[in-house]
Amino acid sequence: MRTAVIVFPGSNCDRDLATAFEAVTGRAPAMVWHRETSLPDGIDIIGVPGGFSYGDYLRSGAMAAQSPIMRAVVDAANAGRTVLGICNGFQVLTEAGLLPGALMRNAGIRFVGRDVALTVANSQTAFTSHYDADEAVTFPVAHHDGNYFADAGTLDRLEGEGRVVFRYAEPVNGSARGIAGIVNDAGNVLGMMPHPERMIEPAHGGTDGRRLFEGLMAFA
After folding, report:
1. How far apart are CA 110 and CA 113, in angstroms?
2. Which neighbouring-strand residues pair with 31?
3. Tens digit of pLDDT for each residue in 68-102?
4. Whether the model pTM is above 0.85
5. Catalytic (active-site) positions
């Protein structure tokens, strides 16, 4: 099993994500710099990490989405390879057109950084197969632009197709319908604002995030 983590200027969760991948697979991921134009051969899972790519200038994720490596990520996703975007990674995936909607400023225009309660809205995806339906989990969040927005028709389609994967179980950032994470229509791309990679061992205060990576590895 080979994994890769994309690294942009301003990424600050790339090491966290790399540690999570290595903890589950036993193998360090390839760290792929944003200026590369291709992914290493044989990559099964691509991680787009959190942070503040390009300083969040323009819009969060907008500049990163235009990086050379993102063309290869989009091609890999369209070819069926698995892509996980967390926090800023979720923003990048929406800006790159791999996921619908947009991440706007939090309600209240305040940065939110704390553990939050979530509900597993769909346990039948590659990313959530090790969770139970409607299971309550806790992941940290750390974002200023995590307020998920899409038009009513898109939200209805996401709900109807089971593409809402995680939902906030408490007020966090004003996201439409409490959406914390969604998948694409093929189910191989997940974007989520909370950080499962920061909840994979007891020293983190809990291990709810580890099962996402274990389920992903089992699927892949």
Report:
1. 10
2. 5
3. 999 999 999 999 999 999 999 999 999 999 999 99
4. yes
5. 87, 195, 197
Residues whose CB falls within 8 Å of the CB of residue 79, separated by 6 or more in sequence, listed in order: none
Q: How do residues 169-209 score in pLDDT, each as one tens digit?
A: 999 999 999 999 999 999 999 999 999 999 999 999 999 99
Residue 169 CB burial class (10 angstroms; 0-12, 13-18, ≥19): middle
Residue 181's contacts (CB-CB under 8 Å, 6 or more residues apart) are 90, 164, 165, 166, 190, 191, 192, 193, 194
Between the alpha carbon of residue 143 and those of residues 2, 69, 137, 146, 204, the distances in Å are 29, 24, 19, 6, 18
Of 169, 99, 160, 94, which Cα lies nearest the Cα of 139? 169
Helix 14-25 vs helix 210-219: angle between axes, to the nearest 10 degrees?
60
- Cβ contacts of 96 within 8 Å, gap of 6 or more: 61, 65, 70, 73, 74
In whole angstroms, what is the distance from residue 209 CA to residue 86 CA?
A: 12
Amino acid at 211: R
Contact 133, 107 (CB under 8 A): no
Residue 3 zone, left/alpha/beta (φ > 0; ψ -120 to 50; rest): beta
